[in-house]
Write a structure and sequence with these properties.
The complex is a heterodimer of chains A (205) and B (48).
Chain A (H helix, E strand, L loop, with lengths): L3 H27 L10 H7 L4 H6 L2 H5 L18 E5 L5 H10 L4 E6 L2 H13 L5 E4 L12 E7 L8 H11 E14 L5 H4 L2 H5 L1
Chain B lengths: L1 H7 L2 E7 L8 H9 L2 E9 L3
The chains are: A alpha/beta (205), B alpha+beta (48).
Amino acid sequence: MTDPSLVDAQEPLEGVIKDEVFRMYQEVADHPENEFHFFHGRAAAEMFGYDADWLARAPAGALASFAGVGNPHERSALQPGETVVDLGAGAGLDGIIASWQVGPTGRVIGIDLNPAMCLKAQAHAAETGSTVECHEGRMEEIPLPDETADVVLSNGVINLSFRKRRVIKEIFRVLKPGGRISITDIVSARQLSQSIVNDPKLWAS
Amino acid sequence: MFGLFDDAGFTRVRSTVVPGFRFKKESTRNAAEGYGVKAVLFTALKPA
């Protein structure tokens, strides 16, 4: 359990990191031609084994701005008619792929800190004739009622939060009983040094 | 993070290392390797 006084002491840093996360992923979406600490775009999706057919069908903007760390679809086993929450929707690639799997009787709800990213995700989905609804919100306080989702997907997002325990409780809350998660994320075997924790650019990457 | 899923009430928590994950920038990659940073795919169920 995190010491509450420690969390309070980190609140200013948490705000700086939130701003850097916001800025960095906006840059990935607006300028995917730029270089980043991480692989992104088609190169990343191919590295993680995304189906070639998906990549062929995906809108160019959604694919170019993809910034995941793995392939959460590999074991999601999505079924037609299911409701999926994509936590950290970004430019929409994972939500769009999910929408193809759940079909017109299903529902995909993206959540993103950045309202501009939500608009991009929805526009990219519309390009493929599918629907992804997207809500601006924080993963520590998911703006959805209890027991909304059959499945929660996420790709490289939870590690960006200072309050991971809170995020995972929120994921549990929005899942229906019997619901499931398929989440790819970054973990560290050792505690990161304070210099890394204090560096918003490194934390955001 | 594995323990956080257990603590939240999830069951059948499974994790698999994502093969091939690495950072692009060499300095970040080297630092990440020093800390044992990996990408992991987590799956789990909320009890019915």
